[in-house]
Amino acid sequence: MGKFLLWAVIILAILFVSRILSHQKANARQAASRRQDIESRDAAESMTRCAHCHIFLPRSEAYMSQGKTWCSAEHARLGLRK
Fold it and tell me: Are residues 4 and 38 in the same domain?
């Protein structure tokens, strides 16, 4: 009976330690994921405004013409709104 209790305690201790280690790994993955989310938010792109319709859009999507920014080639063709 004594050997059985000893093995039961050893098995429970191993299970407990493995659970703690897996929990720490999961927390480390979550922390890394949070850091990536924060870094991606910090790398936000600057916005610009269309000279015709005045909507804001990312600078990489803007159409540059006549020294102004436009949301499309059509608005660049139409020019400034009167």
Answer: yes
Residues 40 and 57 in one domain: no
DSSP 8-state assignment for residue 28: H
Q: Are strands 56-58 and 47-49 parallel, antiparallel or unpaired?
A: antiparallel
In the chain, the number of structural domains is 2
Sign of CA dihedral 52, 48, 58, 77: positive
pTM (2 d.p.):
0.46
Domain that holds residue 29: 1-44
Phi, psi angles (nearest 5°) of residue 58: -60, 145
Q: What is the rounded CA–CA span in Å between residue 18 and residue 56?
A: 52
- For residue 58, give the nearest of 72, 46, 71, 73 by alpha carbon: 46
Give percent of the chain above pLDDT 90: 44
